[in-house]
Amino acid sequence: MERREFLKLAAAAGTAAAIGKGASAQACGGTACRPLKRITIESAACGFEREPMVRPFGFKGGYLTEEWIVSACLRSTSGKHGIGLGTQSVLWSDAAVFAANAEAGGNAIMFAMTQHALNLAKGMSFVTPVELNEALWPQVLEYGKKVACRDDLRATFALNALVAVDNAAWVLFARENGFTDFDSMIPPEYRPALAARHAKCASMDEIKAAVDSGYFFMKIKIGQPGTQEEMLAKDMARVSQIHATLKDCRTPYTKTGKLPYYFDANGRYEKKETLLRFIDHLKKIGAYEQVAIIEEPFDEHADIDVSDIPLRLAADESAHTVKDALERIQMGYRAMALKPIAKTMSMSMKIAQAAFEKDVPCFCADLTVCPAMVEWNKAVAARLPAFPGLGDLGLVETNGHQNFRNWETMRKDLAYETAHWTRTERGVFELDADYWKKSGGILEPMPRYEAMYGRLVVGA
């Protein structure tokens, strides 16, 4: 079916349903449509836990030693509740805030924004979490600018602060409307972009040890410290070494049989000419044909048109909102890195739909998140159209198992800890009927957090 025909069918099925119109908004599952409930938030609470890294985790010129895992609980006037998690990454969402504060100080700023969001949410009503998120994030961003003393605070910083709140709203939304699976609770207007049902999701990982374990989609960090010339020299040397190690490795998941490379530059390249020199080096060493993605090569404020660059460039941090994503597409970016676990599920659905309508593929990138949040990321990745060159595969990045010291302990918060689809097998998540029936467990209660928010849940 052509995309245009699919969009028409989706519209006929209810994609024009208006969000925030009370009884006029509808949920369509199976053959019946019914009005969605308007939900009013009566009370809310949040907390955080500090999770140490195995070793200092470096990117963007900084190093993390821990991440704060934030939880939020929303209770409605009907007595139902939803609990959501979020992983804070100050360095990823705004490196300037990270550099200007102690590591704990930067985390405290973001957590204060989460608390502020919950204070705003009390008494608010919404039909879908997208509506709630649209009302909250601009206010949370303005508050964050004051707390961080930065008028140029990046929008992604506020979205990162809202992830736990947004996830709690989705769980509450599902319980209020009787949804028991992820597909049923996707608002109709975003379903075209999330209509795939992949039996496998490729998990991106790094370098040779990962290949030996069955991983085949290689994420390679570039944009190393130093001047632009020093950075380029280091990047070229590192890529030469990696390609010499991996060039003869093979996988059944690509048309060529060769491993796809995903270069993440974290906005370190200042000029197009420097990136083109890097690309020329890829051609020289024979790695060019294996490049699937170069992510975020330039700073978002550089305003560089990339439509003449032959490889597929992806936007990540710069695509804060739908408006930003569309601007990047206009500039020549031909892929979008979605981060439901960093920019909220609500904003990610909107960006996914906008990209789908422009025929721009998406994939789900990681933020080094806890195991329970990997399932939220996977829920989107498994439903996106297959990424070009990968056959019928979703594409999701996960690296928490490499970086969190207490990863196996954190896995105990999974609703289905022993389910095979919570772990990769030879580089892929196998998504069978059991996975789809249970929606990865993302709507199931998490006992430890239920106990944590017990008094709020029962209305005490």
* Overall geometry: globular
CATH overall fold name of the largest domain? TIM Barrel
Percent helix, as a range, is: 40-55%
CATH superfamily of the largest domain: Enolase-like C-terminal domain
Count every helix, treating DSSP H or I runs of 4 or more residues as helices.
Answer: 19
Content of β-strand: 15-25%
Counted up, domains total: 3
Radius of gyration equals 21 Å
What does this structure look like?
This protein has 19 helices and 15 strands. With 460 residues, it is an alpha/beta fold. It has 3 domains: 3-35, no CATH class; 40-180 and 452-457, Enolase-like, N-terminal domain (Enolase-like, domain 1, 2-Layer Sandwich), CATH 3.30.390.10; 189-442, Enolase-like C-terminal domain (TIM Barrel). The strands form 3 sheets. Strands 7, 8, 9, 10, 11, 12, 13, 14 and 15 form a 9-stranded mixed sheet that branches. A 4-stranded antiparallel sheet has the order 5-4-3-6. Helix 4 (103-121) crosses helix 5 (129-148). The longest helix has 23 residues, at 155-177. The chain is globular. Mean pLDDT is 89; it is low at 1-24.
Question: Topology of this protein?
Answer:
Blueprint: H1 3-15, E1 26-29, E2 32-35, E3 39-59, E4 62-76, E5 81-87, H2 90-93, H3 95-100, H4 103-121, E6 125-126, H5 129-148, H6 155-177, H7 182-185, E7 200-205, H8 207-212, E8 217-221, H9 228-246, E9 261-264, H10 272-285, E10 291-295, E11 313-315, H11 322-330, E12 335-338, H12 340-343, H13 345-357, E13 362-364, H14 371-381, E14 394-397, H15 400-403, H16 407-410, E15 428-430, H17 433-438, H18 447-452, H19 454-457
Parallel strand pairs: 7-8, 7-14, 8-9, 9-10, 10-11, 11-12, 12-13
Antiparallel strand pairs: 1-2, 3-4, 3-6, 4-5, 7-15
